[in-house]
Amino acid sequence: MKDTIKLDPWGTTDIRDYSKLFDLFGIEPLDKSKFRAFESNRYIRRNIDFGHRNLERILKAIENNELYAVMSGIKPTGPFHLGSKMTADDIIYFQKISRNARAFYAIADVEAYCDNGLTFAETSEIATNNVADILALGLDPDRAYVYKQSEALTVMNMAFIFSRGVTNNMMEAIYGKKPFGLYVSALIQAGDILLPQTEGFGGPKPVLVPVGADQDPHIRLARDLAKKYYPDFKFVLPSAIYHKLTRSLSGEYKMSKRDPLSLLTLDDNPTLAKKKVMSCFTGGRETTENQKKYGGEPEKCVNYELCVIHFAEDDALVKKIYNECVQGKRICGDCKKEAAELVTNFLNEHQRRKAKLIDKSRELLARSREQLILSLK
Ligand code: SF4
After folding, report:
1. Ligand 1, from 286, 297, 304, 329: best to mutate by most atoms within 8 Å of Cβ?
2. Domains in the chain, ordered, with CATH?
3. What spacing in Å lies between the alpha carbon of 274 and ligand 1's midpoint?
4. pLDDT tens, residue by residue, 213-258
5. 260 burial via Cβ count (<10 Å: 0-12, 13-18, 19+)
6. What pTM was computed for the model?
7. Angle, alpha carbons 15-33-224 (nearest 5°)
């Protein structure tokens, strides 16, 4: 039944079994044997990126030295959290893997206004901070277009044009019953996804959208619209790659900015972050004795997830943690200390890099499309 999992880009999405999304929504499983070229992507290698739509199109573009775009964005409502980092890491990966790749990063300030009631002055400050994060993570600014939805006239025009191609029933079927403003912001997101294919950016081309699984409704809408408007715009059907959602530190599904204590952010003071990790939900047994006897349950453990998804660079370390856990050779307190050290090392280094990139972030947000086009030549 389709309603056993609800994918809600604006609400809470609870996915225990990602394989269900293949039948329910037509997401394709990410068969690593078909995409060996992307083996250096840690998320793909470790099955964190679990599904896709038309990823073959991007692989083909890379093999044929064709221009393609990788696009996604962030809703500027607070500091970068680990979910935002996953999307950013995939953008950066697919930007760096080919010199023919161009990255597009949308600051969804219109959505933040509609969904969260934040003013454009508030989101502008947050956006500067968020863009400094993606730069510190490694985005190449010379091959990137970073823009605010509210300032992107083409995106707005596309949303307006697309409004003729949808009905209330269609929006409700994709998103459920939502306030009218969210349907409008969904059309703006479709404008974001298809922006790299507009005339001003060189026309139709493959576009890859890395997103969390809960954002799939936006991908479906954009693909529907790409088909519907093919006669006018000759859009290539956008591709997508989906990552699993990062759980909150308390083990609830999806780390969310709506619950600040449940999430680790890239702005967290490393000492505070350490405390958060030390009190996160684990898959440990009730007693040390039972832990040694039966082993822990890494599949349930948020601390293990922090290592496997985010902070352990080395595959051998991930394997070691898993094996020692299930064999009862690891005690959660020590294991969390080890993870906390990985987290604090990462944050110290990231925050050091980021502090130097605030001016660059402002410059990038102020840069016009024309300057970008020139810089790409
Ligand atoms: Fe999690 Fe480590 Fe405890 Fe295993 S030993 S359950 S991985 S915290």
Report:
1. 304
2. 2-247 (3.40.50.620), 260-355 (1.10.240.10)
3. 16
4. 989 999 999 999 999 999 999 999 999 999 998 888 988 766 655 6
5. exposed
6. 0.92
7. 55
